[in-house]
Write a structure and sequence with these properties.
239 residues, mainly alpha, three-stranded antiparallel β-sheet, 8 helices, flat
Length: 239
């Protein structure tokens, strides 16, 4: 972006895999073979500042990062197959003991900032399931039928909406970081709002800044629990 869009020269793509000669990654090199540009994506990028010293906003994608490690390891023949086989054996042992290996693996490779909200969601689901099982106790249902009934609860439907809403919100947040064309107005609005919040909001930065984000998080968790307990948005169901 910026001044680099005026560069009309032709370049070749070079993928550097040797960390001893420079930052591994994708480069654009000129006809003499000299690296001119380092291609750093917005998602899972490594650079935090541009050539002028301005901050660059980067977005994480844990699943894409994991897949990239596997693909790079296979292509570069550097994949630690010993660790892969150990993980496969652990997964087999978990399945034999009745524990879901996939859920264990997801919790293992996701960062704590991502797995902690998932854990809270699991606690909400556990509390709602206790209520629903007590509600269905008078019916002559098998364990599989009870699980099927809990999977159809309003809480599960709302949780699915949370997942879709989170994905859409992530895309919208990314749009606020673009500075091309009309999208530059979104970035300017975000920066002006951030400056206003930094001046007027005592929770914007510092040791207590995370508490402001916890408020809507716990509100969403409470609403999810109430919907699962049919205290909110219950509607009418025919059993």
């Amino acid at each position: 972006g910026g001044k680099y869009t005026d560069d009309t020269a032709n370049y070749r793509v070079w993928h550097n895999t040797d960390a001893t000669i420079g930052q591994p990654g994708k480069y654009l090199i000129d006809t003499q073979g000299k690296p001119v540009y380092f291609v750093d994506p917005t998602i899972n990028g490594v650079l935090t500042k541009d050539d002028e010293g301005n901050d660059l906003e980067r977005f994480e994608a844990p699943k894409a990062t994991l897949m990239s490690y596997i693909i790079k390891g296979i292509l570069n023949q550097e994949l630690p197959w010993g660790l892969v086989l150990i993980g496969a054996m652990i997964a087999i042992m978990l399945e034999l003991t009745g524990a879901p290996a996939l859920a264990f693996a997801v919790g293992l490779y996701l960062p704590l900032s991502t797995s902690a909200p998932i854990f809270v969601g699991g606690l909400v689901r556990y509390a709602v399931d206790i209520y629903l099982k007590r509600k269905l106790a008078h019916k002559d249902l098998t364990e599989e039928q009870i699980v099927a009934e809990t999977d159809k609860s309003n809480g599960v439907l709302m949780a699915s909406g949370y997942i879709a809403g989170g994905a859409i919100a992530g895309i919208l947040i990314a749009l606020f970081s673009l500075d091309n064309g009309y999208l530059k107005y979104l970035k300017d609005f975000k920066e002006s709002f951030a400056k206003w919040a930094e001046t007027n909001n005592p929770f914007f930065a510092g040791a207590n800044s995370d508490w402001l984000g916890m408020i809507p998080f716990w509100i969403l968790a409470l609403v999810l629990y109430c919907v699962g307990r049919e205290l909110l948005l219950s509607g009418k169901r025919t059993d």
